[in-house]
Structures are given as C-alpha cells and as structure tokens.
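User: Um, any thoughts?
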Amino acid sequence: MNTPPLTVVTTPPVSSTPLNRIVPGLALSAALALASIEAGRSAWLQAHGFSALTVAIVLGMLVGNTLYLRVAVGCSGGVAFSKQNLLRLGIVLYGLRLTFQDIAQVGVSGVVIDACMLMSTFAIAYFVGVKVFKLDRNAVMLIGAGSSICGAAAVMATEPVLRARSEQVTVAVSTVVAFGSAAIFLYPLLHSLDFLRGHADFGVYIGSTVHEVAQVVAAARSIDDHTANTAVIAKMVRVMMLAPFLLILSAYVQRGRSASPAEKGSDTSRLAGIPWFAFAFIGMVALNSLLPIPAAVAGALLDADTFLLAMAMAALGLTTHLSSVRRAGVRPLLLGGLLFAWLVAGGGAVNAAVTFLMH
C-alpha cells in the first residue's frame, strides 16, 4: 500500500506577521521625523522659511540613498505605511489649523483672489507642462497643485489621488520649495518698491501667491505684523480649498481611468478613487469652527499632525532614488519657474483687479 507523503505544516515566523513587517520602517520614519522637527526649530531655518516637512524629505533622501539600501527589505512595509496611511491621517488633522471664520476675516475679495490664483495657476501648469514641456501628466499635476495651493502639503495630498511615483513627488516638492524659498526674499523687496501700494492688501497678495505656509510667515513677518496676520489668514483660506480641489481632481482622474474595459462600470473602482480623507479634512475644519477645542488639546493634535506629516515626508525621501530625480531633467524646474513668475506678476494683477472691482 502506498503511504501518502507526509505534509509538514510550519508556523510562519514571527517576523512575517503584519505588525512586525511595519514596525522597523515605522521606527525609522519616526526617528527621521523627530530629527527633522528638532532641526526645524532652528532659528536660521525658520527665518528662511524651511519647515520640518522640508527638512524631513531632505533627510529622508540622504538616508534613503545611503544607509537605507542595506535595510530596505525589512523596512519597506513600514515606510510604505508611513507614506500612504499616515499621510492621509496627517492631511485630515491639518484641518484643525483652519476655521470657517478665517474666510470672514479676508472677506469675499480675499476668497475670490485665492480661487482665481488656484484655478489659473493649475490651468497654466497643466497646459504648459503637458503641451509645451511634454512632461508626464502626474508630474505636472503635482507641481501645479504645490504651486497653486500650499506647497509640499498639497503635493503630498494629491499623490494618493494620482497614484504618482515617489520620484515625481520628490521633484514636485523640490520645485515648490526652491521657488517658495526665493519668494521669502523677493516679496519684502517688492513691498519696499511700493509694488501694489494702495491697490491691494499686500498681506492678501502674499497669502494668495506664496507656496508654503512657513514661507508666507517668513516673507510677511519681515514687513510688519498687520501684513503677517492678513497673509496667514489668506493662506489658510487657500489651504481650505485643498479639499474641493482633490474631489474635483479625483473625479477627473477617475473618468480617464474608467475608460478601460476592465474598469468600465465598476462601482468598486470608482469608490476606491475617491479621496475620502478630503471629506474628513472638511469635517475637521467644521469641528474646529463650531466646537471650542481646549488650547492644550489643539496644541497636542497639531504637534501630532506635524509629526505624522514629517513621517510621511521622511518615508517619501527614503523611497526616492536620486538617479530618478536626475532623469527628470530641467523641464520640471522650468515649469516651476514659469508658475512662480505667474504667481508674482499675474498674482499682483489679479489682486489689484479684484480689489478694484469689489471695493
């Protein structure tokens, strides 16, 4: 009689469980985030508009292209979790920085200016980037989102909607950081030259055209307190437009993707493409607007948000290969430069025109 072959059942090693697969990468991302936040407290970096998020992606890239190569296999799960899941949670908590009352402080004209700058900047980015520079559509949209809304945070929030590659995200972040940093020195100079003097609120002009929140603060504080306060409020209103922007962009992207026979008519694929965290972001803004959150609790949540976003940026840097960034060439930088020129010159024209028409 033939004896059936012996079947040996083995228990998976502890290291193969989901938790143990993500812990090393989470720990590495967290360590880089903590180092970035500490470095971001530097007076020099703050004066030059470099936030902890900017430091995090740079530090992540330095480690990612050196030491990380030796431990990438064991850390990849946690790094991917940081770059995707923690990013979404960080964007949701970002809503606690905003209130609907902010809109009232800049008035209808401030909202109109922000909306005009967002739509025009993104439209120019898409047309010139795709039609003239022949860049990849995702790369163009990421640069356009970062330039038109809120810099690196907008790039990171747009990435899940587009399912963009790490190197595309890094190029977009690098572009908006570079030109946003230049704005810190340019805008005070424009103010000293009486640019827009008497034609528009210079604070609204800064808030509606400078890339990053940290860069807005750095540029406006060098002028005066009134300009700084108005600039930050105008910037926060612009950031609030991130949620509707993501929803519209998601609908546009999904329409293109559903054209394939495999996905046509699939409700699941459509639902998967909806950026649900955008709705949660709006919910957080509403919560912060309607309910008094104790200062200590709000401060702790905002610190947690900065930490989560820094982890996501560090993870992005870890997965970015410099060779891929170099292959992107000079065209993304040219696109970013063109958008920067539009934000400065075109933004001045839009601010002056809207202020004139609505007052």
User: Anything to note?
Assistant: Residues 23-257+266-358 form one domain. The first helix runs from residue 18 to 40.
